[in-house]
From TrEMBL:
Matching InterPro entries: GLPGLI (IPR005901)
Name this polypeptide is given: GLPGLI family protein
């Protein structure tokens, strides 16, 4: 889905009020990425980072809408045939754990992976203003890519999109060196729910198993589902 990038809708004063007095926050990021299947055509997708009581949940707008429907109707199937359409990143700031939860397309089965690759941030003295916030540069190697982040200590939440966290403030923008993936904060507001949405815990696997599941699925989706004895 293509989403036009609109002007950032965040007011610095409002943000400071929310951060000071709010217990939970819902942060909206837009991810812009180059499609390898469409001659590097740029696409965009909305993601939400919900934070409550030292835990956070990162998911796409599509996943968030699906979760809302599930809570109301009890229907738990994603209905998607694209493997990465429905995934969640859950972080616990108390024990620094990060888990990725994956819904298997064409089924209701789920897997979860403990993300163990460390984030060895290198802080830079470089600074710049991004949408009224004084941001500082940080770099990290992750997933075979070099990522460049801009965070602000004006918002003292050590969080960010996807698996990225543990900087001295909120990540306002982060991209890989080649800008194939760019996350940009566009909105922040108070999170009014009493708890984070908790997806069903699945079978715990490691990254190599996850990659094999993806390959097997894309080679023959229906044969994969049948071989795994998954529920359609």
């Amino acid at each position: 889905m293509n989403i036009p990038i609109k002007k950032i809708m965040v007011q610095a004063l409002l943000l400071r009020i929310l951060i000071t007095y709010g217990q939970g926050h819902s942060i909206e990021y837009i991810m812009t990425y180059k499609s390898s299947l469409e001659n590097n055509k740029k696409n965009s997708q909305l993601y939400f980072l919900d934070i409550l009581n030292n835990e956070s949940l990162f998911r796409s707008e599509k996943s968030r809408d699906s979760d809302s429907i599930q809570n109301k109707t009890g229907y738990s199937g994603s209905g998607s045939t694209i493997f990465n359409d429905y995934f969640y990143i859950k972080k616990n700031m108390n024990n620094n754990s990060v888990y990725k939860f994956i819904s298997v397309p064409l089924s209701t089965d789920k897997f979860n992976i403990k993300m163990t690759e460390p984030l060895n941030w290198k802080l830079s003295s470089d600074t710049k203003i991004i949408e009224k916030f004084r941001c500082q540069k940080a770099e990290v190697e992750y997933g075979g890519r070099r990522w460049i982040a801009w965070f602000t200590e004006e918002i003292s939440i050590p969080e960010g999109p996807y698996i990225f966290n543990n900087l001295p403030g909120l990540i306002i923008q982060i991209s890989d060196k080649n800008k194939e993936y760019v996350f940009q904060l566009i909105k922040i507001k108070k999170y009014y729910h009493k708890e984070l949405y908790t997806t069903k815990m699945g079978k715990e696997i490691i990254q190599n198993e996850y990659e094999k599941i993806q390959i097997d699925y894309y080679n023959d989706p229906f044969a994969f589902v049948k071989s795994q004895n998954l529920k359609l």
